[in-house]
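This part of the workshop introduces the protein records we will be handling. To make this concrete, we reproduce a full record directly below:
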Amino acid sequence: MKTRLTSLLLLAACLLGLASTVSAGDSDTYAQAKQAYQTRNLPQLIEATETLKQRRSPLLPYLQYWQMILTMDQLSYYQVQAFLQENNESLLSQRVRELWLKRLGRLQFWDQFVEMQAQMPMYYSINDVGNQCYQVQAGIALDDPNAYEDGKKLLLAGKDLPADCQGMLEALQQVGVLDEKLLLTLYRDALFSNKTGLAKVLAKRSNKTDASLLKQIDDMAQNPTLTLKKGGIQERSPYARALYMYAIHRQAKADTGVAKTSYQKYSGLLDNDEKQLAQAYIALEAARKHEPEALAGFGKVNAALLSNEQWEWYARSALRQQDWGLVLKVINDMPAGLADESTWRYWKARALMAKGQVADANQILAKLSQERHFYGWLAAEDLGPVAGEPMATYQPTDEEVRQFARQPAVKRMEALFDVEARYEARLEWMYLLEALDDPTRIVAAQYGLLKGWYDLAVLAADKTSRTHNFELRYPTPYRDYLQKASRSRAIDEAWVYGIIRQESRFMHYAKSSVGAGGLMQVMPATAKWIAKKLGWSSYHDGMLHDIDTNVNLGTYYMRYTLDTFNGQEVMATAAYNAGPSRARRWAANTPLEGAIYAETIPFSETRNYVKKVLANAHMYAPRLGLPMLTLKKRLGTIPARSSGESESVTTTISISEQE
């Protein structure tokens, strides 16, 4: 072990000691070129491109790519092919192909479109929705029998449809694939997803709508209660009647009682299926609010009309009531693809156990226990010590790491980091990983760790499917800071690592879209509140990304949430992400298993966050040499909420609002 550590330190020194991939001049030229691209200053961009071309800079492809974006309409096929040959199989080559596909689609050059698309690697998926629509349209034009079904699947995915999709919509309507029934279904789904722009695109394609409907969609999105009071909705049109259901759903998000009153008032205008859909959405929002009436609401709805989201909340409502018979029935009845997800396989096994069907439960748990995630760990604990398939592990050699570092794509990533283009470097890394097998992903993770690219190292190690390296998947940088702070606050260091791995992936410079910063993603207002508590009179926002300062602030808040919930780590974790008031409100009126509490958190972001943080902590404990807790023990039991308790909790700590 000591020899391996020494070898890694020497290799790290070698990799870090190499000369910078870009010179100071290259960095300045890149910055000037980016500014020229953003301001559409083509002459200046061309000049910068020539400069980096003479220097043979690894950043050159980016400048060429920007130049191609600004001149795409004037480019020839041969110019595009020249770039693709020079940058074969790189991320930028796929981006250029997508740009060219967009141009070919708009010109309806379908043979060339299919030819260009065929050049893309199998692991790369077209990201642009407009190009996805052109792909379907090309298939229809060239008599591909699969094109119609592909188009239907694209529409059912519920993505916003740009102007580039109008041709596909027209083609699907002409052949009857996009008939009035499907169009109405898509329109309703768009409304219920609050995608009013998409709803209007779809409504315009029906001969049963007019301009007044489009305005009513906007009005209903702004203020559903007021729009209902105004009236004027054409009850004879199913598109107009869908606005009643949309309004009721919007009201249910805020107050299910108000929604139920509206349903009683307007249900006479709806047909039977429309009534069922409205009731399903009231039940959905009641379930998210943990209202016990949700179960009865779901029970009244025709199962064929339930969406995947509604099925999941039907099951969660049954879990909250710990009605294992109903949990089993709901999971058995939900769509097969949904029931096969790890979450519902686990809870099906638990329901079978509760019903005494241990053999059937163990069969599910045995397979699930081989998967490396929250429910995989729980399944393994439920199953107990049994002989299973040994886990394949891989330790990369120093030479493999050196070979990896020599790749042009890796050199380009190093150059991007040198000019602080971290976002672009991360995209390059993610693209590179797609083409790698498990051992090479582990090599990539080792290289990332040695370079101090901790987030990229975790990304690489996390993507392995059969062969793993958990030391790289759960790295332990900044141990001195974290160990000291954990001991000072008397909190579990494994939990601290679990939080940081989920919050920032150990990027001390990380900043979220809402302003949270540093390793522990502390909000500026929260940081000021804590600094005042700690007596830091000289604290200012510029200190938030200092590692020692950030860790002190974050662990203080962890201690605060832990004290708020009497040492209950699951609730404290939920509070760290969503705020103490919400975490307390999500408790039940009776004691609740920690795993059930976590699974029934209304916000998907917080629900996934809590499960990942606790799974991280579970894995970090042995890595840090700490006493090993089972995940079930770590989850514990959530105490019953006292009457009115949710109203009494206040905090001055600022947590970003979630929907």
About this structure: The chain is about 65% helix and 0% strand.
